[in-house]
Amino acid sequence: MSDAERRLSELGITLPAPVAPVANYVPWVRSGNQVFVSGQISMGPDGLVKGRLGDDMDIEAGQAAARLCAINLIAQFKAACGGDLSKVVRVVKLGGFVCAAPDFTDIPKVINGCSDLMVAAFGDAGRHARSAVSCPVLPLGAAVEIDAVIEVAE
Length: 154
Prior knowledge:
A five-stranded mixed β-sheet has the order 1-2-7-5-6. Strands 3-4 form a two-stranded antiparallel ribbon. It contains three helices and seven strands; from the N terminus they run H-E-E-E-E-H-E-H-E-E. The longest helix is centred in the middle third of the chain and has 22 residues, at 59-80. Helix 2 crosses helix 3. It has helices at residues 3-10, 59-80, 107-122; strands spanning 28-31, 34-41, 43-44, 47-48, 88-99, 129-135, 144-152. The radius of gyration is 15 Å and the shape is globular. It has a single domain (3-14, 33-152), classed as CATH 3.30.1330.40. By secondary structure, it is an alpha+beta fold. This is RidA family protein.
C-alpha cells in the first residue's frame, strides 16, 4: 500500500473504480512523465451532486462536491500509474470549474475541497498550481468539475 493509499484509508476514503468517459475522450493521457487527467465531476457513491453555488448550494456543499472530484481524480491517477499511487511524483496543476450564480465569488474556497484532499493524500507532493473559475452550467448538471496534471515516475 502506498503512503497516499494509507493516508486515504486513515481518512476513511476508499477509491472507487475510475469513472468512464461520458463522451468522445479518454480519461487520461500520458505524455512523457506527465499525465493529463480529464475533468472529473462531482460523482459519489450516492450519485451525481448537482446544483449551483450561490443559488441552491452553499460553500460547504460545494467543497464536499469538490472533494468527490478529488477522489475521482485520484482513482484516475491510480489507473494511469498501473495501480500504484507511489508512482505519483507530484500533483502539478488542478483546473477547477464551479457551477455558480453570477454573483457568487467564493470559487477558490469551493475548489479547496479538492486541493485540501490532494495535500492530505500526497503531502508536499500534493501542493499544486491551480485555476478556479465559475460557469453557468457543467456537464450533466454537475456542481463541480476538476481536471489535473500530474508528474509520474518512469
